[in-house]
Amino acid sequence: DAKTTQPNSMESNEEEPVHLPCNHSTISGTDYIHWYRQLPSQGPEYVIHGLTSNVNNRMASLAIAEDRKSSTLILHRATLRDAAVYYCILRGPTSGTYKYIFGTGTRLKVLA
Amino acid sequence: GAGVSQSPRYKVAKRGQDVALRCDPISGHVSLFWYQQALGQGPEFLTYFQNEAQLDKSGLPSDRFFAERPEGSVSTLKIQPSEPRDSAVYFCASSLEGARAEEQYFGPGTRLTVT
Fold it and tell me: Does residue B66 carry a pLDDT above 70?
C-alpha cells in the first residue's frame, strides 16, 4: 500500500520546467515527504524531502500544499539526464516510520 | 567517499541452488535495508537492521529468505533454496541512523535470475 498517488508517466521538453505531482491524502502530521528517482539500471537516488515548508536544493524544489495532502516536485530545467522514474514516498507513522513504501512512480520522458 | 556497494552485480542460479547476496553499507551507517524490485515495479521493502539487530523482517516473502548483519556492518541476504519467482533486482540501502528525516543511500543492486 503505497499511500501516495502519482501519474504513471509524463513528458517534458528539454530545458523546460517539469512539475511532478503527488497526492497523499492520508498523510499524518509527522510523515515526511521524500522524493527519489531511479535512472535506468540504477538504484534509487535521493532527490529531496520536506515536512511542511517548501524546500529547495541543487537538484529540485519541493512544493507542499498547505493541507499537506499533495506535493509537487519541480525540476527547473529538465535535461535528458533527468529521464527516470520519480517516486514520492511518505516516511513516518503511515509507512512504519523507518522504511520506504515505494509505489510505481512517475516515468518522466524528456524530449530533445 | 565510497557509497553502498553490492556483490555480485549479476547472479544466475538454477532452481534449488542457494544464493547469497552481499551488501557493504557506507561506513558508520547504523541502519541497513534490503529491497526487492520486480520488473516494472517499485522497490519493495524486505528487511531492516539497526546495527546487528534485525528489527523488521516483515517483508521477507518466505522462510527461504534469510538476512544477517552479524557485526553491524556488512550484510548478507540469502535465499535457500532459490526459485524462479525470486528473479528480481535486490537493492541494499543504508542510512546514518534511520530517522524519518534522513535519506537512504542505495547500492547499484544485484540482478538475480533463477532458471
Answer: yes
pLDDT value at A77 more than 60: yes
CB atoms within 10 A of CB A97: 14
Task: Provide the pLDDT for residue B62.
Answer: 94
User: Considering Cα of B89, then B51, then B3, then A45, what sign does the dihedral take?
Assistant: positive
Within 8 A of A91 by CB-CB distance, chain B residues are 100-101
Which chain A residues are Cβ-neighbours of B106 within 8 angstroms? 43-45
A33 and A92 Cβ atoms separated by less than 8 Å: no
Cis before A40? omega within 30: no
User: Above 70 in pLDDT, residue A94?
Assistant: no
Q: In chain B, what residues touch A51 (CB-CB under 8 Å)?
A: 101
CA distance A85 to chain B (A): 9
Contact between residue A8 and residue A107 where contact means Cβ atoms under 8 Å apart = yes
Q: Mean pLDDT over residues B86-94, rounded?
A: 97
- Backbone CA torsion sign across A87, A88, A92, A96: negative
